[in-house]
């Protein structure tokens, strides 16, 4: 059960994400600084009264997920690219998560429509108490019928307060075991996010370089006083949500981040890259269930 106040925060976070997502096409063009895209998205989320639920992810071509600008990033959007912008906002830990793919004169523009169509069809089959595996079936069928391939090891996910990946995964292919009873529960939040690639691709991502997105994994934190202060500040700001190295680098004691990573208090996400280097498109919405309804919050 979600209280009226919790529902209100989820819907407000969704509204913020929707508004910022609509601005994104104007931020993404050939030669645009990736760091500026990230910062504009994140500052618009704050301006509208939310906090980023995770760093703005910019996935260029074969990068599927988990890249954000490091401090002093000089990367620019190349010519003829598909650029995925994945953004999230939270209010008091109540998260909305959504993504859009922009074509910068890409020859793979069709993949965007296919990702969006997969998402639309998925949203049509979701019901309270319905099978989660129905989403994977309809997403895979839609994508394959258009001559493309889903990414089999990137999934949607349940979301809980201050937690982006809350256990249950929402596959984009059929025939994958689903945890959490395998059904959409009442009063729950889920992100649904098809990823599409070329039919000749492997259709899966592998770990690439580290992506400058971290989160706290060891809640008890470090013992020594100096790193404790830095850890406490991180926890105060981000709790268990992902944060950018770019953000942490502005906090006193940032030099201790390496130590906290080494002792596994902090985890850094690797960038996820299509295994055969093929371009990926993505579309994503967050949904909330009531006792009987499904509401798209984003
Ligand atoms: Mn997302
Ligand atoms: Mn997501």
Helix content percent band: 25-40%
- Unreliable stretches: none
Strand-pairing-aware structural class: alpha+beta
Strand content range: 25-35%
Radius of gyration, in Å, reads 19 Å
* Number of strand segments: 16
Q: Count up the helices.
A: 7
Question: Helix-strand pattern, N to C?
Answer: HHEEEEEHHEEEEEEHEHHEEEE
- CATH classification, class level of the largest domain: Alpha Beta
- For the record, give the distance between the C-alpha atoms at the N and C termini, rounded to a whole number: 20 Å
> What's the arrangement of strands in the largest beta sheet?
8-7-9-15-16
Overall average pLDDT: 96
| Whole-number count of domains | 2
CATH superfamily of the largest domain: Creatinase/methionine aminopeptidase superfamily
Oligomer: single chain
| Distinct small molecules bound, one entry per kind | manganese (II) ion
CATH topology of the largest domain: Creatine Amidinohydrolase
Largest β-sheet summary: 5 strands, antiparallel
CATH architecture of the largest domain: Alpha-Beta Complex
Q: Which term fits the overall shape?
A: globular
